[in-house]
Amino acid sequence: MTLGNTALAGPLRAALLAADFTYEGTADLLGTRAHDALARNETTPGLRRTAGGGPLATLVRLFLLQTTVSVADAEAALPGLVDRLSVAGLLEQSVSEVRARLDCRPYGTDDDTPLWVVSDLTPGLDGGPQRVVADHVLGISPASTSLAQLTLREPVGSALDLGTGCGVQALHLAQHAQRVVATDVNARALAVARFNAALNDVDDVVEVRDGSFFEPVREERFDLIATNPPFVISPATGERLVYRDSGLPGDRVVEDIVRAAPAHLAPGGWCQVLANWVIAADRPWDERLSEWIAADHDALVVQREVLDPSAYVELWLKDAGQHGAPDYLQRYDTWLSWFDEQGIEAIGFGWINLRAPGGSAPGATGRARTELLQWPYDVEQPIAPAIGEWGRADPTAVRLDSRPVAREDVVQETVGAVGAEDPSTIVLRQQRGLRRARQADTVVAALVGACDGELSVGQILDALAQLLGHDAEEAERARTTYLPVVAELVAEGFLTA
């Protein structure tokens, strides 16, 4: 692969656009059934949909369905480029046919900016061999999509894509950062990331550097760091797949990144990590992770999923194409034995969001705020706006004279026996963002309902005390009891203040 020749990127981009080889264009051509089948690694419906020919159908068959096309069709779809792309390693041609050696995939964004991502071919199509080489360059994956949805999108001066792989996060960051640095240790990934930056015309914004984690940016600080590190938790023995295996045992790579990130954040800067972590048999997960976080940094850690060790090992052995291999059972047993030796009860998956003190970010008070939340429930995607709202919330500023406002998406649910005068349970539930829910008593429910920005917290509590027939002592007790609850409601996003 010689994709270091980025001079081909511009002509290739022009050909892809001319053929309408965009996310919308390919989705329309394939239709729902074939598109969904391709997501399951099945190509037959797509081959049927693209049998009619034309430049777009040729590119879909060539890159997405990984089948051969005629030289004539390839030349029509990529005029003047087939020979040059073959020399560069993107294509392979015989006397009569052309085959893709790398994937070139249209990528959709929220603002409909057409992007393309080159990577290694998707393994395992139609049940074929799924073995991948050690320096495999992974393309668009559920993990990369999750990180893209997590990453804040406010304009920033500088951003770091740590462990860039094919460079998809750098492409996102280049849309709202003045300068992006992308690092990796995989030489093939670095070449692909550089080519992708040029292919999407952001190579003047994205600088790709060779080196492990923060080594290439030792003295630099960034407004935003986004990383999907090689977080697979394993004994760090045997063959290493660079895109997923760090070479460090357990969740050490994630811990090292979280501990080192503060030294590379500008005032008010964010570091956002998509990761796995160990859940030890003898210790709560949140207690363990809280030790990684710098005391003066805000942190929102959300555990989205918990996996049983057996299911985890099966997942990653299959990902490496080891399922059914002669040594599959031995690998499986060795991995599980290591989990037992380390006292690993389960594996957590989720998000770690850190924010440095200082800066001009709204709500930045210089007082560290930490929340470690177990939330496996459905959330709104992209989730980044909700992370930003969490960062802007300042529960420490809530006073009796504060005038909070209930978020418009918060609804009240009540549960009780049919015909009962009062509900047995009241739940406040968000319809957007994290979609949190919390149980409330009648006072809290009434208080939230009255928060329209006109009345202060003290005025609302006094009015409720009068309605409930409280004397002066009970009214004062209600102020003491419910003011911290209002701060919690602000922290959790039910109220804005």
Structural overview:
The chain is an alpha/beta fold. The protein has three domains: 6-102, no CATH class; 142-392, Vaccinia Virus protein VP39 (Rossmann fold, 3-Layer(aba) Sandwich); 396-496, Arc Repressor Mutant, subunit A, CATH 1.10.10. 35% of the residues lie in helices and 22% in strands. The chain contains 17 helices and 18 strands. The chain has helices at 9-18, 23-39, 44-49, 55-64, 71-77, 82-88, 142-150, 168-173, 187-199, 252-260, 285-290, 309-319, 328-342, 384-392, 442-450, 457-467, 472-491; strands at 69-70, 91-93, 97-100, 102-107, 115-120, 156-162, 177-184, 206-210, 222-227, 265-280, 298-307, 344-355, 370-374, 405-406, 410-415, 425-430, 437-440, 495-496. The strands form five sheets. It has an eight-stranded mixed beta sheet with strand order 8-7-6-9-10-12-11-13. A three-stranded antiparallel beta sheet has the order 1-3-2. Strands 15-16-17 form a three-stranded antiparallel beta sheet. A hairpin with a 3-residue loop joins strand 2 (91-93) and strand 3 (97-100). Helix 16 packs across helix 17. The mean pLDDT is 91.
Estimated radius of gyration: 26 Å
Q: Main beta sheet, described? A: 8 strands, mixed
Overall structural class, as computed from helix and strand content, comes to alpha/beta
- If classified by CATH, what would the architecture of the largest domain be? 3-Layer(aba) Sandwich
Residues in helix, %: 25-40%
Question: So what's the overall shape?
Answer: elongated
Low-pLDDT runs: none
**How many separate helices?**
17
Q: Which strand order do you get reading across the main beta sheet? A: 8-7-6-9-10-12-11-13
Mean pLDDT: 91
- The N- to C-terminal Cα distance equals 55 Å
Question: How many domains?
Answer: 3
CATH class of the largest domain: Alpha Beta
CATH fold-level label of the largest domain: Rossmann fold
Strand content: 15-25%
Work out the number of β strands: 18
CATH superfamily of the largest domain: Vaccinia Virus protein VP39
